[in-house]
Amino acid sequence: MPFYHKLGNIPHKRHTQHRRPDGKLYTEELFGTEGFSGNSSLLYHHNPPVRVVSIEPCEFPSPEDWRLPVQRHVHTRTKPAKPQGDPISGRRVLMYNSDCRIGIVLPDEQMDYFYKNGQTDELYFVHEGTGRFETSFGTLPYHEGDYVLLPHGTIYRIVMDEGKPQRWLVVEGKNFEPPKRYRNEFGQLLENSPYCERDIRVPEDLTPITGDEAGKGPFKVLVRANDMLSAYYYDHHPLDVVGHFPRAPLRGLPGDPGDVRQPDHPRVPDQRRQR
């Protein structure tokens, strides 16, 4: 669905010189979900986003299949689950296949790093809790009943409000979009759609960190790609984007979050299933 949004300090035309107050050039980054052919945004960084001082491998456990001798229904009971970990390490995968992962997270620790999923988009549904997503596109508050969609490749961290229990559903997959039956040929949402463009929220606050406001580096960014997890250390703060257009992460009201392709049956990981 076409959705134009701009925020912050951007040049009058794309691919032109855009200078910082000290006369140096901002770094223009083409953020594309499918290279030059898919949805994309232009981000203007205070520092080159490739300035990484070191990279370290991290453990990335794969779910183990829970295989039954027959195909049967399974009632997944998640209410008794106890809080654990931060918004990334505390995830518990309940079902997965070659296209997506579906799980829950009840975090009770704040993130002391940033995260980038370079492999799949991420869709959060907030059952409980309030806080904010601090992303390279700006800050996106959340509360109960929100869907929050993050395109793959987005650098972010989640800051939870203190004293608020958090319970989220997390779906990792590719190309979340409204079903075709709810769109016209130009991508506009139809009158029979369960939500409309006014229900969609985007970041409205972009505060770039260009100096030592958040302390000195290196700053840790966990990157998931090719079924591996790596720790990238930047010599500058990763949220140094001063402006961007035309797209951004989305927050919406409850409704149909879109289609997730599932060509094969979901599998349930044994050690993570909730009974």
What do these coordinates show?
There is one protein chain. The protein has a single domain, classed as Jelly Rolls (Sandwich), CATH 2.60.120.10. Helix content is 0%, strand content 37%. The protein contains no helices and 20 strands. It has strands at residues 7-8, 27-36, 40-45, 52-58, 65-66, 91-96, 101-105, 114-117, 121-128, 131-135, 138-142, 147-150, 155-160, 167-173, 200-201, 219-225, 228-234, 241-245, 250-252, 268-269. 27% of the residues are buried. Residues 254-268 and 270-275 have low confidence and may be disordered.
Radius of gyration: 19 Å
Q: How many DSSP H or I helices? A: 0
H/E element sequence = EEEEEEEEEEEEEEEEEEEE
CATH topology: Jelly Rolls
Q: What is the name of the CATH class? A: Mainly Beta
Taken from the alpha-carbon principal axes, the silhouette is globular
Protein traits:
275 residues; mainly beta; Jelly Rolls; seven-stranded mixed sheet; seven-stranded antiparallel sheet; 20 strands; 37% strand; globular; disordered C terminus
Quick take:
With 275 residues, the protein is mostly beta strands. It is built from no helices and 20 strands.
Write the layout of secondary structure elements.
Layout: E1 7-8, E2 27-36, E3 40-45, E4 52-58, E5 65-66, E6 91-96, E7 101-105, E8 114-117, E9 121-128, E10 131-135, E11 138-142, E12 147-150, E13 155-160, E14 167-173, E15 200-201, E16 219-225, E17 228-234, E18 241-245, E19 250-252, E20 268-269
Parallel strand pairs: 8-16
Antiparallel strand pairs: 1-18, 2-3, 3-18, 4-17, 5-20, 6-7, 7-14, 8-13, 9-12, 9-14, 10-11, 10-13, 12-19, 15-19, 16-17
